[in-house]
Each structure stands twice: as structure tokens, then as C-alpha cells.
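Sequence only, no structure available. Ideas?
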Amino acid sequence: MEPPPARRCHRVMMAKTTISRRTLLTALAGAGAAALAGCDPAAPTPAALLPDPLLVEVDGGLGVLRGTERQAAPHGVATADGRLVYASAADGADTAVWRIDAGRGTASDRVRLPGRWVPQTVSADGTRLALTTEGVSATKQRPAGRDVTPVLIADAGGVRQRLQLPGNVVPEAFTADLAGLFVLEWLPPDAPDRYRVRVVDLATGVPGPLFIRDKAPVPSGAEEEMRGDGRQAVLAPDRTVLFTLYTHQPDHQHTRDRISGRPGSDVHAFVHTLHLHQRWAYCVDLPHPFGEGAADGHAMAITPDGGRLYVADLGSGAVAEISTEELTVRRTATFATGAGPAFAAADNERLFLGAGAAVRSVDLAGLTVAAHRPVGEPVTGLVLSGDGSRLYVGQRAAVAWQDPDSGGELGRAAVPGLRGLHGVSA
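Reply:
I predicted one. C-alpha cells follow.
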């Protein structure tokens, strides 16, 4: 069975994923899929040609928008930069998997995997896929109790490894050399209420601790155990470091505090930094009031040069600048508060923050608000084009693109069922 050609109407029957990065995607259903595909003559059509290919979240799944074309990715999971998407579908008692190049719109041949599997995470380079029998978001969901977790490692050619990992684990990311798999190990396995990050040696299938920042292994018993909400994950532009924002962490102690015996600070949010090459982890604490408000009022964006990471809590109006080299908070500022889910995008001079029916432009030199722009409808996502000349704003059933300097709308396309924007696909 071959996937439909890229430049063809797709009536793909697919039965919400949050971006970040890595949520279980269920099938799009009925009208939503037909509207996304753009094949139903009664469905709304785009009012303008999209200048860039976009990877988006629609009701129940992922979709690729290119020009006037719409391509569906059933049960899809994407690379963190949105370039590649792995989609899957039941094939009798087995699972068919194929890879979509979101920028070009092309799809690989389908590969048949024995048994029923759900794509869980993709390597940063897009060549490896980890699948589980129960898809669970690495940042948003808690798995059901279990003592053993089946994991399948595959690529465009088929199965590479089948693992039976002890305990209750959720694949999060591959190491850069593809020899290891970072997982969240949930504890206790039969009634999970907290988790720790471990790395599985894919040659042996044996899980072990990470390293601390000086590259020494974490001593037994000193691994961080986390509770609370993982809000968003951002991959560094050079694909070496994964940053994940966590909020609401009662009774949490960082590894560095457990090793030193210090009690640690009373923080409610931090950025978990995972080095995919060197396999170490480090947490950057965020000051009060981060983490005390709603998790979805927080958002994070990294500059294209990779040097600065910005975290915003629009519920309190707080913004923090983190040096990705020093892994410290360098500056903070407080702006007017915003209501509803927050979204962020950044270039090297500006930070764009969206919440409610407005987008703010923040000047990074002074960390001050340069403009406050109403957009008419609640924002569901913000993405900058690769050249920085267009700011895409997700809304209820459409995506609009603006001039980032003036805020003037340059175009708009109807996208029925749109829930969020994942990224621009080069």
C-alpha cells in the first residue's frame, strides 16, 4: 500500500496534540479530515496562497499546509523543528508507517510493522522513530500503570529493534548518535505520580542514569524525581540541546542539591536542559512568580542564533531571559498580564507573545514592549518564517500572516479545525 502522491487531493480519514513537542495523536474524523484535505467542494477554501509550508495541529492530528494544498498525517509525530513527520495507520493486525517531508510535501513508501504501534518520538535528524503500544505525551499525560513497556525502534526501512523495557517508561528523545533513547521513567510503575529522566542503551536495552553537567554520572539515588506539568519543549537550532519547561513542582529537588545535601530552593517552575550529544541534564530555576499560575499561560521561544531562551508567564506578566551557554537567568521584566493560553516566537531582536486576541512585540535590547496589536480572535499559535519576514498567527479556523515590523496583515488562509501551529517547514 502506497501513500497518496503529494500533489493530490487527500480524503484521508483520520479520526489534539500540543506542540511541543510529542503528544499522542488520534485519528482525525469525518468532516475535519475532509476540510483539511481541501477536497470537499463545500468546504472553505484558502483566501490566499501560503508563502511557506506550515506544520499545524488540527482537530485530532497533524496537517501539512503548502500553498493551497492540505496533507494529513494520521497518528503523526514530528521532528521538533517540524521538517519531517512520521504518520501511521492500521494495516490489518499490523501498522503501516511512512514519512512525510513537510517542506516538499513528498512521502516515503509505507513500511509494515508487525503488531499495533503508535509513533512516540522522532530523532532530531528524522531518521529514527520510537513507537509504543500506548501513545502518551512526554510532557502532558500520565501513563496507565504497567511493569514492562514494549518499545519498537524503526526507520524508513522497517524495524531495527524491539525492546521490553523494565518499568513504566515514555520515550522522550534520541541521543544525537542514535545509540541511546532518553525516557521518562514513571514511579511507582503500577500507580505513577512522579517521573525521572533516564537514558536507555539501545545496544543492550539497559536503562541508566544521565550525567551531571561536568559529565560525571549521577550517583544512584540522586536522580531528580519530578511532578507537575511539562508545558513545552524547544530544540536548540543546532539540534544539540532539548529545553523543556516544567511548572508546579511540589517537593522537587534538583540532582545538584541531592548530591550536595542542600535542601534546594522553593521553585515552582524550571527549564530542564537535556544535552543530546553529551547526555547530561541540568535545571535552570525560574524565579517567582513563574509556575504559580496556569501552566498554559507559560510559553517559551529560542532565538535563531541559539544564544538566548525566553520564558514568559503571561498570567503574571513575567518574562525571563536565559543564557543557553551559562544556563542562568540573566534578566527579567514584568509586563501587563494576559489571559488564556500563551504562545511565543523570537528572532534575534524581538520576542513575540500571543495570548487572548492580541500579539505583543518585545524589544530584546531593552526587554520592553514595543507594540501591542489586537488580532480580532484568540491566538492559537505563533511562528516566524525562516527569513523573519512573516509572523504566522494561528486563530480559530484560519492562519494569518503579518509583517512583524508593522503588524499589518499580509494574508490569511482558512484552516477548518485549526488548533495550533507547529512550525515553518523548510
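Residues 126-208 form one domain.
Hope that gets you unstuck.
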